[in-house]
Amino acid sequence: MITALFFILHCVGFSGTVAGSRKGQWQLLLNSTGVVAMHMALTHHNTVIMFDQTEAGPSGYRLRRRHNGNRCTDNRDDVADSLCYAHSVEYDISSNKVRPLRLYTDTWCSSGSFLSNGTLLQTGGYGSGTRRIRYYRPCGDGKCNWRQSERSLSKDRWYASNQLLPEHDRVIVVGGRRTFTYEFVPKMSSNEGSHELSFLHQTYDRNEGGNNLYPFLHLSSDGNLFIFANRNSILFDYERNRVIKTFPRIPGDGSRNYPGSGSSVILPLDHANRFEKVEVMVCGGAASGAYRATRQNRFLKGLSSCGRMVITGNRHKWNMENMPGPRLLNDMLILPTGNVLIINGAKRGSGGWNNARNASLRPYLYKPNNKLGKRFSVLKSTKIARMYHSSAVLLPDGRVLVSGGNPHDRYTFSNVAYPTELRLQAFVPHYMRRKYHTYRPTNVTIQYGQNNYNGVRYGEDFNVTFLLERKPSDVVEFTAYAPPFTTHSISMNQRLLKLRCKSLVRAQGGLVHAVVEAPPSANVAPSGYYMLTVVNGGTPSMSEWVRFMHH
Predict the structure, then answer these.
(1) Helix (H) or strand (E) run with residue 264 in it
(2) Least buried of 100, 232, 245, 385, by fewest C-beta within 10 Å?
(3) What H or E segment, with its residue span, contains residue 172?
(4) Which residues of 331-363 are buried (b: 16+ CB within 10 A; e: fewer)?
(5) CA separation, residue 323 to residues 268, 271, 362 (Å)
(6) Average pLDDT score over residue span 483-511
(7) CA-CA distance, 541 to 507, in Å (whole number)?
(8) CA nearest 395: which of 119, 43, 145, 97?
């Protein structure tokens, strides 16, 4: 259904583009989502959850009734009452509509992870929400909503980061403002506490607003946790509360983490090396002293540098290269092709209210396997600034959804350089254009084995069929993508796997049968829903959902 709709709805805008252009296109989808997408996550029901803080006063989405049933009238008190407005919405991709959702406590600068059944586990926030645990179980009928757990976090978690762990449905929550610990959720018992992490004390810059908040977390395929904060990083055994490795400091000054606000990805994991080589990448951030300089109305130029480092094996060195320009508050998303999209952000200043200037309007594309110096290209510019409190997520139809942006503590639309941004856009990569349709695998269907009604078990084979108008290219790849929870320039739990294809048979009528091997373990791919994409010589199909699970 979605595949068919995509062709009808979205091919229209592509026909008039310059031939040979690889810069992509922008689409305006909605003039207002009603709510700032400070946080965003794609569910396996092809909806996108967006939410803001709840204490920013009136949003752009007025409700007829409060959640307790009391009517919202036009009197002055009601018009100013935060409870008469939505602060979270669900966006339905196929209908291009939003519906309001109910949040009970403040989610300002919070964190999240998907569990194995596709439920979003969401943690922390501010004030009433700082120790709260919330769940959102997505549905296809528009009737699901937020649920708040009876159990609480053991410490305040404001600007913390989450990572889904290999253990079944266990999530680690790391850090937060003035919180130098980590803990696990869901809670196994009411007295389960938190654990000190001295690395967070060591990387904390008191004069610069922390510069180690929202640390970058990546699960290595050996089951240990990579943690990057400020400029430093460790490999951490969270079971034993032990630092296994301290990596070299990333070269150069400045900071990569909030309010420095650079971004990071774990580069695609590949079956060709049994998923054993794990390489991380960190891009952008703020200059030394940038946060304090904003107090004097000085906005220092952001960092242009990116570092890549292999975190497995015994030799660890940051390999540095420069983006086409300085960037902070930027999102990094891994595309189905294995390339990295760097989108949103600013060129000067730091994270925080009104602390950034000069919006970065042009996305960058990074091709990790190209030769050094040939990896970056500059894509088509948007006209809409997406700075503090904006976010971006990859959609199953190949587009990138871009939303949010609000450097003010209230919804502010006039007399400011960067007004609150409620417009919803999609960036459309060049390979989604009509001229690539003859190369694009269509009608992708996943068939589980006879006993696997719910998903594919680790290491087992599953069948994928698809249609191709012409003979497959020499390189047909099968990639699986874990949809992230995105906020404040980081995409928590994002990872892309290149899976092993055991056989590829082309039958009559362009039908292709493939046998694909599931990832070997939960260390490589924590159990849950992944977007499976068939990539034919660099042209991706629409993605279909596959669930990888324990035996």
Answers:
(1) strand 263-266
(2) 245
(3) strand 171-174
(4) bbbbbbbbbbbbbbbbbbbbbbebbbbbbbbbb
(5) 19, 29, 12
(6) 96
(7) 19
(8) 43
pTM: 0.95
Domain boundaries, the chain: 37-49+93-392, 435-549
The CATH code for residues 435-549 is 2.60.40.10
Task: Calculate mean pLDDT across residues 72-78.
Answer: 94
Determine the Cα–Cα distance for residues 423 and 37; give it in Å rounded to an integer.
Answer: 10
Helix locations, 197-278, DSSP H: 198-202
Q: Which residue has the higher pLDDT, 471 or 366?
A: 366
Does the pLDDT of residue 450 top 70, yes or no?
no
pLDDT in tens, 175-225: 999 999 999 999 888 889 999 999 999 999 999 999 999 999 999 999 999
User: Do residues 158 and 130 lie in contact, with contact meaning Cβ atoms separated by under 8 Å?
Assistant: yes
The pLDDT score that the predictor gives to residue 474 is 87
Dihedral class, residue 466 (left if φ above 0, else alpha if ψ from -120 to 50, else beta): beta
Q: Please count the other Cβ atoms lying within 10 Å of the Cβ belonging to residue 317.
A: 12
Structure-token pair, residue 467: 């249609």
Residues, the chain, total? 551
Q: Count Cβ atoms within 10 A of the Cβ of residue 452 and give its class: 0-12 exposed, 13-18 middle, 19 or more buried.
A: middle
Between the alpha carbon of residue 503 and those of residues 441, 512, 513, 515, the distances in Å are 16, 10, 8, 5
37-49+93-392 topology per CATH: Methylamine Dehydrogenase; Chain H (2.130.10)
